[in-house]
From TrEMBL:
Name under which the protein is recorded: Acetoin utilization protein AcuC
Matches recorded under InterPro entries: AcuC, HDACs, His_deacetylse_dom, His_deacetylse_dom_sf, Ureohydrolase_dom_sf
Protein's UniProt keywords contain Glycoprotein: no
Keyword check for GTP-binding: no
Length: 384
């Protein structure tokens, strides 16, 4: 068994500064909640912590266009014109300018790069960056709550500086469009995204026919799922298709995005998965890493907008999976509950297990499952 100190955990209070405003759904308080939960469980210690740095412009430019980086720097100081803001995606209701946004966004990228370096030099074998996973950011445009795409930059960094074959596995409910379009014409990096269909959900992309172009053809894989997909069907199609793609691509390292917005209580999406689903996903990917990449894997956070009832318990299992610790049951730490019950606008669950609060039975389970299995079979046909 790998020593527990061979797992890195990217964290600094400064990561909490990536914040559009107090009412925005993207709230990094979920990172603090998860970190303190792991600390109160006595599994996360100072020895695991990898402090983030601010990524350089040269590093950001591995994926992002130079003019876009300069626009973000100008926006950081409130000197970006309205015309420029519109050009670079900074005038939408979802993604807009905030003070020192370049520094706070580049720090998220720098945390991922520090973890990548630590894995490549053998300091740690694996690790997670729960404050990252900003997979919607495009090379030249902000998008979907995301300024710089730390997943894409890290993938290109590993390919450029360490000559790694990188596979990205994105399990966020929203399609990883920024990452996909960053690598759509290259065969260096494999992008796999399993997500709710874009028929009813941002960003509207991720159809199974989006497979890459030119040299990148067949290096993009999309598995769009029907709304109200449930636990058993989700895990079945994930396991089978990821295994097939991994065996075809033969990666050296895996980067995975663990948005927990596939949960039935998430306010922004329409899937019907549970905490049990979210607990199992990182263990599945960890096993794939152990089997195919000598254990090398970086797990990112991503989406997840029910920050009190879902995110802390789900994201804790990302770190637990990396430590080879078992899935938890029983009560949550009393110290954590006592502190955060004071601040939570909803009643906090006291147990690790799902209570299926407000769960609505799915009436079209058979039809939904059959459509998802049909799409999964297309992937199996391509890569088997």
């Amino acid at each position: 068994m790998v020593s527990k100190y061979k797992t890195g955990f990217v964290y600094s209070e400064e990561l909490l500064n990536y914040r559009f405003n107090n009412d925005h759904p993207f709230n990094q308080m979920r990172l603090k909640l998860t970190t303190e939960l792991l600390q109160n469980m006595n599994v996360l210690t100072e020895e695991h912590i990898i402090r983030p740095r601010i990524a350089t412009e040269e590093e950001l430019a591995l994926v992002h266009q130079y003019d876009y980086i300069q626009a973000i720097k100008h926006a950081s100081h409130g000197i970006l014109s309205e015309t420029e803001a519109q050009k670079y995606g900074l005038n939408t209701e979802d993604t807009f300018q905030f003070r020192h946004m370049h520094r706070h966004s580049a720090r998220i990228v720098g945390g991922a790069l520090n973890l990548a370096d630590a894995i490549m030099d053998g300091t740690v074998q694996n690790g997670c960056h729960l404050g990252g996973g900003l997979h919607h950011s495009l090379p030249g445009r902000a998008n979907g709550f995301c300024i710089y795409n730390d997943v894409a930059v890290t993938a290109q960094y590993l390919a450029t500086h360490y000559h790694q074959r990188v596979m990205i596995i994105d399990t966020d409910a929203h399609h990883g469009d920024g990452t996909q379009w960053s690598f759509y014409t290259t065969n260096e990096i494999m992008c796999y995204s399993i997500h709710e269909t874009g028929k009813f959900l941002f960003p509207g992309s991720g159809h199974y026919t989006e497979r890459g172009e030119d040299l990148g053809f067949a290096y993009t894989v999309n598995l769009p799922l029907e709304p109200y997909t449930e636990h058993d069907n989700y895990l079945a199609v994930l396991r089978s298709t990821v295994k097939s793609v991994i065996e075809s691509f033969k990666p050296d390292i895996i980067l995975s995005v663990h948005g927990v917005d596939i949960h039935y209580l998430d306010p922004l999406t329409h899937l019907s998965c549970s905490l049990e689903t979210l607990y199992e996903i990182p263990y599945i990917i960890k096993q794939f890493a152990d089997d195919y990449t000598n254990g090398k894997v970086i797990m990112f956070g991503g989406g997840g907008y029910n920050i009190w009832q879902v995110v802390p318990r789900a994201w804790s299992h990302i770190f637990l999976a990396l430590l080879n610790e078992p899935i938890r049951s029983g009560p949550l730490p009393e110290k954590w509950l006592t502190k955060w019950s004071t601040y939570s606008p909803v009643k906090l669950a006291k147990q690790w297990t799902e209570d299926y609060r407000d769960y609505q039975p799915v009436l079209r389970t058979k039809e939904i499952s059959e459509k998802n299995l049909e799409r999964a079979q297309r992937i199996l046909d391509w890569y088997s």
